[in-house]
Fold this sequence. Notes:
The protein contains two helices and ten strands. By secondary structure, it is an alpha+beta fold. It has one domain (4-186). β9 and β10 form a beta hairpin. The termini are far apart.
Amino acid sequence: MxxxxxxxxxxxxxxxxSKRASGYxxxxxxxxxxxxxxxxxxxxxxxxxxxxxxxxxxxxxxPSLILxxxxxxxxxxxxxxRGLKYDIDMPDTTYANDLRESLKRGDVDQSSFGFxxxxxxxxxVDGQLVRTILEVNQLFDVSPVTYPAYPDTAAAVxxxxxxxESILEKKNELEHEAREREIVLMG
Length: 187
């Protein structure tokens, strides 16, 4: 199973004269940008079984730029009505100090998260294919990021291709049922 990554437009904040950074890795019930033929939403409760995972805070999802980790106590995760919140006690390293400066200046101000899905649903809403993530299987990382690159990720495209077949089948079934209902009503 490939790790998927998604951007949230929620701002990452840095406490003045502190090594603490916080943000939302994911926001509930909010539409993503177009991910290559579908949009995505995250259902409240999607992270309930993933909060105890060994999660890392990374810069730009780069495992060589680790900022914190849940098992070491330098990253804390919580869920509120808005979404998946993270709080990082960043290390005193060159890259973390550089990131703190970029956060203070506002050059870096968005977040992302890496995950695999256990349960999702696909629907068509107003002609738009919508994937709702109902349950995250594993949460790998939360990351302050420079660029939102997720619309072009191979994982998102593969996931869409895999689900398009079942969506098309379901759509054909619904159209067939609708035609049968029309015949019965007209008959």
